[in-house]
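Posting this for the archive.
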Amino acid sequence: MPKAARVGLPLQFAVVVTHGFAPRCHSRGGDAGFCSEMRPGLTTSIGQERSSLLSAPARDRTIVCMTLEAYCQTDIGLRRERNEDSFLIDESLGLFLVADGMGGHRGGEVASRLAVESAREVVFRHSKDNRRMMPRQLLAEAYREASHRIFDKARSEGNQELQGMGTTLVCAYRYRNTLYIANVGDSRAYLFSDPYLWQVTEDHSLLNEQLRAGLFSERDIASFGAKNVITRSVGFERDVMCDIVERDVRPGEMILMCSDGLSGLVTDTRIADILRTTSVDQIVSTCINEAKKNGGDDNVTCMLLYARPQEH
């Protein structure tokens, strides 16, 4: 089993200090709770505030030193011939990516690799450009460029193995004191603030659309026959729009990003329990082992970002 990568990023964050804040979700039996919707401290890509955390007055802000640590591990799983997941940790750019490719005999592997390479190239080029875009614009451009390259490669080469390829792509981008989370597909980002777990991203999947439409309940998920059908991907069509949320990072919080090889086999409750009880450097390997214990039907990639408070 490969060891998880670890990257330390010394940063100063402007942390929102609030008093008496209680997230609107529950804890089961005193253990880690979870919510399936974005709630505290998140702002959507169209600027809708989900709570007052991001709009706290300036007097409630303080500077806290912390280190943003990144850990990641990917595994082929137990039933696949190749690993079509890709990931990127670039501490110099503050860019963290997980992609889960699909399509054709080799298409998924090619698509996920192109997605992370293209996104990194866009962010790197932007970092050298004096005409700086705002983070939301930058991430939207990174997703567009990745989708163009994947789509054009499949069309121009006429290679049957690449026809119809595409990929999910979930991204965390650090800009000053804020993490911007972008997503296309059903790879996920979770926020863990002990003892609560929130799914930050929205799944672009047929399953989620059916749930949101009220056509069946969460109790019926196990019997749903099209769990792997996604409704939005990077590269299947030439243009794509990503979802973006943002949040100030606070000491002790964790962001977990993963392919559906984890979220499809390990419940949110169990993920929350792992995050609450496992040492930080063992979380990603524990998550992957849990997915394999539950069948390991797919490739699984797990990335953890941990805002470790710095000692003074």
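The CA atoms of residues 211 and 220 lie 10 Å apart. The chain has a mean pLDDT of 81.
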